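Hi P.,

Sorry for the delay on this. The queue was packed all week, but I finally got your sequence through. Input first:
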Amino acid sequence: MTPPRKELFVILIIALASGCTGPNEGPMPPPPPPAPLVGSIEVVTHTLNLNLVPGTRYTISLDGAVGTSVASDTIMTLLNIASGSHTVALSGVPALCTGTVSKQAQVAANATVQVGFVVICSDGMLRGDRIVFMSSRDGDREIFLMNPDGSGLTNLTDNSRRDDGPSWSPDGNRIAFSSDRSGAREIWLMEADGTQPTKLTDSRSLALNPAWSPDGSRIAFDDNRILQGKEIWTIDVDGTNETRITNESINSCSELATWSPDGAKLLFSSDPLACSALGFDLYTIDVDGTNKTQLTSRPGPEFVGDISPDGRKIVFGSLIGGNFELPTEVFLMNADGTGVIRLTVGGGDGARWSPDGTRLVFGSERNGNPEIYVMAADGSDIRRITTNVAPDQDPRWRPR
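Then the structure:
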């Protein structure tokens, strides 16, 4: 007997209320939970003066969990980390070394945050007893000497023309610099006490930024004598054997060269196409002009690089994202261009290594005027060592 239509309707309502949709189906499944909000953490480690602690390994741990063993210089990424604040810890730092061993990472969904650890190893013998620099404190650009704490100020040049870009000889007995005292900008040499100034180049153009080779036999500099932008040149210290190293396009710029510790390569800043303020990157090139290699390709220019005494690290200046409204900052990377981390917040450029590889001297306008500062090579312990209403710039440590 077929039930009346009214009874069928009641049965259907009861079936729906009980979660039944048919003879072969169970209850409706609950909706899936929302996807977790996760990001990642890139951990970069740098060990300075690794030759003092060869074979060193560290352990990286997150929020107190069991850690991962990594090499002394490494780049690793922690994936699927929940959004929020996390503690990244570094353990295994040798007794000869120091550095911050715990840092906070604020993770955002679908983003990567970087945490950098710089471990500074030292034999305890601080090297670099004097700093040479350029100052306009007497009304024009002159070369001065001072101690690393800013005391012992000595004026090495005193004339009405521009003297700047000082560079120490490897033995610390002489200084190369750029000057227009003879009319055109040329490279000059003088004794470390400022005596016996001698003109080295005769380019009759714009010879700037001298850098002494590690063996003391040659000097690299940049010059625009061929009227197609700046190029890197070298010259023997007796004024002979002048050699063009770079050979870029018209209107290119290659400048601010420094030598690798073994004297085999030059590190320099270049825009090989247009000499644009935003187009500069860091390159290396063999001293015979071959094997040019690009190291950086970040947004914004990179310039004024310096290679660490052991040849493994490079510090350089860069504008964050190419924003000229922000100050230049100091960055650290491996000699092959990997592992870039930021060292300064508040401005810094022209950073140079101390002879022992534990400290950096650099320029900054963080207090409203170009002054010179010293900091540990991990970016900590920043100390201002000049105080003058005129610009103080281009600092270099004495090698010995």
